[in-house]
Amino acid sequence: IWDEQDNVCFQVDREFLTWGKTLRVRDAQGRLCATVHHVPFSIPCSFELETAGGTLELDRHFSLFSRSYSIDSLGWEVEGDFFGVDYAITKGSQTVARMEKAWPAFHDRYRLEIADPADAIAALCTVLAIDCCDEHHQN
């Protein structure tokens, strides 16, 4: 994961041999920053996001014409368009972050704009979880 100047900020490794998909987020020096874990058999889709601040739960909500998630413990609502290309993370009337799928891309690439750097890890984990959820529903 790179910043605007193409400097490596984070690395994401997938852990195999676990129930549910598990991703480990490491900083540029290789230190563990967070873990994203799909809760097996959750309907429609839930993830545990483990950060230095504690464990957060990202839940997907049923919606016909958009993609909707929440992290209740942070008061975050995540709304995406029908195609899963553009998302906004809000807390009340404040925008926490915006993300959009970057095109063209051979892999899943997202552009993430975060209002407060203190929210960077939680917002990044949210993007990773949503990408996993989309992949899970496509398979």
TrEMBL record:
Coiled coil: none
UniProt cross-references to Gene3D superfamilies, sorted A to Z: LURP1-related
InterPro entries cross-referenced by the UniProt entry: LOR, LOR_sf, Tubby-like_C
Pfam families for this protein: LOR
Record-stated family: Belongs to the LOR family.
Protein name, entry field: YxjI
Taxonomic path: unclassified sequences, metagenomes, organismal metagenomes
